[in-house]
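Shipment paperwork, digital attachment
Item: protein structure file
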Amino acid sequence: MSDNVYYCSCCGGIMEFDVESQTLKCPNCDTQINIVNEESKIVEHNFSRRVANTIKATEKQSSTMICNGCGATVEVSADCTATECVYCGSSYVLAEKQADALIPDGVCPFTVTKSDVKEKYEKWIKKRWLAPNNLKHLYETDKIQGMYVPYWTFDADVDCTYTAKGGKNRKEKVKNSDGSVTEKTVTDWYNTSGRIHENFDDVQVMATSNHKASHLRGIEPFDTKNQLKSYSPEYLSGYSSECFSVSLDDAHETAVRKMETELRDSVRADVRRRYDEVKDIRISPHYKDETYKHVLVPVYATAYAYKGKSYNVLINGQNGKINGDYPKSPVKIAIIIAIIIAIIVGILLAKSSGGSNNSNDVASVYTSEYICDNIIDEEIVDNNIVYDVDYVEI
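Attachment content:
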């Protein structure tokens, strides 16, 4: 067991990181100790293939625990009193051996309080319009737990040459079989090439496989530029912290894919300055000055059960953005389907009687078909909260 237990010099209580004051604070007598931020310790490490293959984990001043229920490896501060797994609710047991872990280069402390999260979570639950009504009374906000999740960040200076085809649109008159003349748009394609330059700073890649990737992506990005502090175990007091489970090499490959997606977008924008359309983009990026950091970011997590199935929700500990699972009510889905069918039947009846407005009919049918044919998770941002709007498939 780690010796990093922070006892209050006044009353002997165990001190925890306090979000509001950003200090180590005693919950009994309110004694506070400032946490020193040494910016010189936040280091950007040079990246190379050799480093990716040979990087060694270093023992960290914390304890590694293994969940009996789901087997997740979770790193917690020595004085953490959590007794349940944030993934499945099972009890923790201390691992027999201290696991090696890479010392983080920095940590983004929690800036959203647990009480703020409770309010945002209640609002999020109540706005799950497809959720069963009784679900909104079953959640337990006391099960919301704060934890630090590992991320890799990557920087790179990229010169990129490219080739593509640029299209110029023109109007062409076409004579129809009935003798009428209409205009259509014709695109003439030309080979083009060029060079762009991008400087990437803190491309974020999750370093954990313990969470559903879409949930973490749904609460990104984290502010690793303005809110990053030098790593101190004091930030972990009262919270847990995961060990990284995604290698530096695998994370770098993901970062490169992200960078190349942005490079293609930049190429598309560059070509469109000269042409109306663009296709067949091919890029040849040259990476230099590549660096990386290993950082911890703040996440609130909770899990709840409904009719024998577990659902997980994650909340960004910096801005309160929420993403997670929830059950859908078959009754509500059936009602929506019935309404859609009624709309379609009404349109068909109106058409058969000859009293319909064609433009409105087209719009109504299109909307109905869109809803019926797809199940899409669409993000609607409201006060920094992400809502999943679910469309119904018949």
